[in-house]
Amino acid sequence: DAGVTQSPTHLIKTRGQHVTLRCSPISGHKSVSWYQQVLGQGPQFIFQYYEKEERGRGNFPDRFSARQFPNYSSELNVNALLLGDSALYLCASSLVVRANIQYFGAGTRLSVL
Amino acid sequence: GQQVMQIPQYQHVQEGEDFTTYCNSSTTLSNIQWYKQRPGGHPVFLIQLVKSGEVKKQKRLTFQFGEAKKNSSLHITATQTTDVGTYFCAGMNGGSQGNLIFGKGTKLSVKP
What we know:
Chain A is mainly β. Chain A contains no helices and eleven strands.
C-alpha cells in the first residue's frame, strides 16, 4: 500500500508569492495534519482536518490555510510568503482525529528567496 | 501554552555505548509518542506510551513514561550506526484538540 504522498518535493518561491502544497493520505485514513519543520527543530503543528472539517489549528498566521477534499486528500496554502516560511512542510495522516499514530509523508521543502 | 522540552540537543557516542534522551512537558500528558527522523528523511513513529509509569521495549530501545505523565525517556543500549538520526518525543495533552506537540529532538551521531 502507498504511504502518505506529498507534492511537490521541492519548491522555490519569492517573497510575497503564494504556494499550494498537496498531500494524499494512506488509504483508509480520514485525518490529515500539516506540520512545519524548520531546520534543527521539531515539527510544529499547523492544522488538522478530519472528515473535511478543521479539527485543530496551531499558532500560525491567517496567511496559512488548508482544506480537505472528499477523497481525504488535502491542500495547504500559504499566502504572502515571507523568508521565515522557508521550511520542510510535512503532511501526516492518521486513522482517527485525536493524535493517533501519525504517518508522515516525505515532505515538501519550501525555499523562499 | 504547552511546551515539550528535550535534552540533550545533541549526543555523540562511540558505537556500542548507550544513549538516553529525556523529554519533559509543562503539563500532564494523556499520552506520549516517540519518532525517529533519519538525516534527510521524515519522522517515523516508534512507539506510544499511555499509562503512568509505563515501560516498553523494542529490542535495544527502552521507553519510559513518568509516574506523573509529564516526562519520558528513550534509552538505547549498545548503539549501532543504524541508530543515527534525530529522536523526537511528541506529547498530546488532554484537551479537545488532541494535536501533538513535538520536542526539538535529540540528534544522535554514532562513531564506528
